[in-house]
Amino acid sequence: MSEWNEDQGLVLDGKVYPYIEKNPLDEISLNAFALGATFATALTLLPLIEFYNLSIYMASLSLFHFLEFYTTARFNPGKVTSRSFLLRNGKGYILSHVFAMCEVGIGRILSPTWKCTSYSLFHRFVFTIGLILMIIGQLARTLAMVTAGKSFSHHVKTEQNADHVLVTEGVYSSLRHPSYFGFFWWALGTQMCLLNPCSFVLFTVVLWKFFNERIEFEEKYLVQFFGQQYLHYRARVPVGIPFIK
Ligand SMILES: C[S@@+](CC[C@H](N)C(=O)[O-])C[C@H]1O[C@@H](n2cnc3c(N)ncnc32)[C@H](O)[C@@H]1O
């Protein structure tokens, strides 16, 4: 017994397979190759360049986008598409990272000694906290996708799928939106790692506004889908992003 479904892939003898029309293999293999090559180049350059922060950032960015696709393919195969890499994550996302690169370039040209982790104790502190945030953020994001499984989707559902259940265990028992928590802190961590004060402020404002609106919108539908069960869950589990209740 088999059934094609744009949102749940192909169900064949109880097993879920990706929806082939939304998974062009040429595009997927090229994306994976480009991300792997970026990751390897960044790690190779790490001991060779003075501003090694850039290598760490590039490695983390490529790992992040690879894991978005890999985790979806592995734990939620019915919903995986070539867009699951999140490489086309909107103009705002791309512009923010371009802005961050410009800040690195301008900072290194104007004052290479200031734009360096060893410049002061404060610089070392900011860099270290940035690294820790990147690791915690990535772990939270990936764990959220693994734990939510078929209930996770890169787009907010406004209609409930048959396989959509309320997830409250694992990382969801201490964070209500662990993948947003992870993305938020990972992204701020990247800018601390790059010693980018302007981008840090820009990322904070843009991401806070985005997740504040998104969570409100998403929860409206979660309340519709799961009623009292979600209201009780919302009352006891925090978001973990400042000033978002
Ligand atoms: C991009 S995922 C993000 C999930 C969650 N907001 C997070 O940050 O981990 C969006 C989808 O997850 C679903 N979702 C959010 N929280 C959920 C939960 N606790 N249980 C099941 N589905 C959830 C929403 O309905 C939405 O379609």
UniProtKB/TrEMBL annotation:
UniProt main location, coarse: endoplasmic reticulum
GO-annotated cellular components: endoplasmic reticulum membrane
Pfam families: ICMT
Highest classification ranks of the organism: Eukaryota, Fungi, Dikarya, Ascomycota, Saccharomycotina
Residues making up the signal peptide according to the UniProt record: none
Lipoprotein among keywords: no
Swiss-Prot/TrEMBL keywords: Endoplasmic reticulum, Membrane, Methyltransferase, Pheromone response, S-adenosyl-L-methionine, Transferase, Transmembrane, Transmembrane helix
Topology versus the membrane: Multi-pass membrane protein
Subcellular location: Endoplasmic reticulum membrane; Membrane
UniProt xrefs under Gene3D superfamilies: 1.20.120.1630
Similarity section: Belongs to the class VI-like SAM-binding methyltransferase superfamily. Isoprenylcysteine carboxyl methyltransferase family.
Protein name: Protein-S-isoprenylcysteine O-methyltransferase
TM region(s), chain numbering: 28-49, 122-140, 183-208
PANTHER family reported in the protein's UniProt record: PROTEIN-S ISOPRENYLCYSTEINE O-METHYLTRANSFERASE, PROTEIN-S-ISOPRENYLCYSTEINE O-METHYLTRANSFERASE
GO molecular function: protein C-terminal S-isoprenylcysteine carboxyl O-methyltransferase activity
Listed EC numbers: 2.1.1.100
Natural source organism: Lachancea mirantina
Top EC class for this record: transferase
Reaction catalysed by this enzyme: [protein]-C-terminal S-[(2E,6E)-farnesyl]-L-cysteine + S-adenosyl-L-methionine = [protein]-C-terminal S-[(2E,6E)-farnesyl]-L-cysteine methyl ester + S-adenosyl-L-homocysteine
